[in-house]
Design goal:
By secondary structure, this protein is α/β, with parallel strands linked by helices. The protein has a 6-stranded mixed beta sheet with strand order 1-2-4-3-5-6, sandwiched between helices. It has a single domain, classed as Alpha/Beta hydrolase fold, catalytic domain (Rossmann fold, 3-Layer(aba) Sandwich). The termini are far apart. It comes from Ramlibacter terrae. InterPro entries: AB_hydrolase (IPR050471), AB_hydrolase_1 (IPR000073), AB_hydrolase_fold (IPR029058). This is Alpha/beta hydrolase.
Length: 191
């Protein structure tokens, strides 16, 4: 399998991406806040072998991508559109985890004709913290001690951590390299 990598200018910074190429339908992967585009290695190979064109990228401030202007963090859904434009992809299957799902949903709402399918996992889809009822319910369900837990306890299932210590170690290494400074909080349409 041949995978190309590069940087795409999204206006104000350049984002790192990888692309397996090929004639199959495109599947683009959006990473969680604890990861980067490098965290999709298993999916990259599996989807390419299944005949899809797999594409992943790191959002602003994540592994190999530039941070850009902190006063203008861009709109993540538009960054995704520019990555797809650069790769010559008109429509894609969009697969997103956690924080990546916030931006995948925004992309689907802003560019519905560009989305073949939308798959979202482990996300509350970016319900605004300013929505009082939601914020209160979230605070009641999530104990204050949660934020102090190690990242792998918050993000990886207990059975996975027990059954696959090598996988946990690899995930932790990817997580440690994922950011190149404080998180860049992208703008969201209408917020």
């Amino acid at each position: 399998m041949s995978v190309s990598e590069g940087l795409v200018d999204v206006g104000g910074c350049r984002l790192w991406y990888w692309d397996t190429g090929g004639p199959g339908e495109a599947v683009v992967f959006l990473h969680a806040g604890s990861q980067s585009g490098a965290g999709w290695g298993h999916q990259q190979a599996a989807f390419a072998q299944a005949g899809f064109r797999a594409i992943g990228y790191s959002r602003r401030g994540c592994w190999r991508s530039e941070r850009g202007d902190p006063d203008d963090p861009g709109v993540a859904a538009e960054d995704l559109a520019r990555v797809l434009d650069h790769c010559g992809v008109e429509r894609a299957h969009v697969v997103a985890l956690a924080l990546g799902a916030f931006y995948a949903l925004d992309f689907a709402l802003l560019h519905p004709a560009r989305v073949r399918t939308l798959t979202i996992a482990s996300s509350y889809l970016g319900i605004a913290a300013s929505e009082t009822e939601y914020a209160q319910a979230n605070a009641e369900l999530r104990p204050p001690a949660f934020d102090a837990l190690p990242i792998e306890v918050k993000e990886l299932h207990p059975s996975y951590r027990v059954e696959n210590p090598e996988g946990v170690a690899a995930w932790l290494a990817l997580s440690a390299q994922a950011r190149n400074g404080p998180p860049v909080v992208a703008k969201r349409p209408g917020r």
